[in-house]
Amino acid sequence: MNVVKTKLDGVVILEPKVFGDHRGFFMESYSKKTFEEAGITYDLIQDNHSLSVDAGTLRGLHFQTAPMAQTKIVRTITGAILDVVVDIRKGSPTYGEYIKAIITADNHRQIIVPKGFAHGVLTLVPNTHLLYKVDEYYAPEHDRSLRWDDPELNIDWGWSNPILSDKDREAPLLKDLDNNFIYGENV
Predict the structure, then answer these.
(1) Are 183 and 89 in contact (CB under 8 A)?
(2) Is 19 domain-assigned?
């Protein structure tokens, strides 16, 4: 497995070894041993699966506050996404900065989104299935969103009118965010 670092500390892209032939392919999407050898030691406790039927569906930017914050390991099994991760750790040298990555069923990439980061995906094709492992259970009282089109972030999603939930449409801006992440303290 190849681990590609990004400008956001702890946010990495995983490129697994894929063995293909005329029948298709085989890959290990998760191996505790392989992950630990790469320094990835999260205690993953739950798998989540979402389907976005339409291209242009935007989910995010989501996170859970401490102490119920989640690390996510995200991949697609069909379709393609633009994956966006934003540093929301107050005091971080990269606070308010983001990275984007294309994650597809064909490139087999995965992305690790640690605690202290907001995460969003935009589906690029119809019928995109997203799988992600987490290290903490869903806690509605800690569930938060960051406005996907916050002018301070200036994220180019490449889509002019995405399909949004009411929650995402009404999410607060970074400057108004209910966020208890402090760089180096609680993540």
Answers:
(1) yes
(2) no
pTM of the model: 0.95
Nearest to 155 by CA among 118, 103, 107, 116: 118
Structural domain includes residue 84: yes
Catalytic annotation present for 132: yes
Residue 148's domain is classified under what CATH number?
Answer: 2.60.120.10
Q: Catalytic residue among 49, 108, 132, 142, which?
A: 132
pLDDT tens digits for range 120-153: 999 999 999 999 999 999 999 999 999 999 999 9
User: What's the mean pLDDT in 7-19?
Assistant: 95
Inter-CA distances, 64 with 40, 129, 145, 171, Å: 20, 22, 8, 14
Pick the catalytic residue from 62, 98, 108, 119: 62
- Is the pLDDT at 187 greater than 90? The verdict is no
Q: Where are the alpha helices (DSSP H) in the chain?
A: 32-37, 166-169
Domain count, the chain: 1
Range of the domain at 165: 43-176
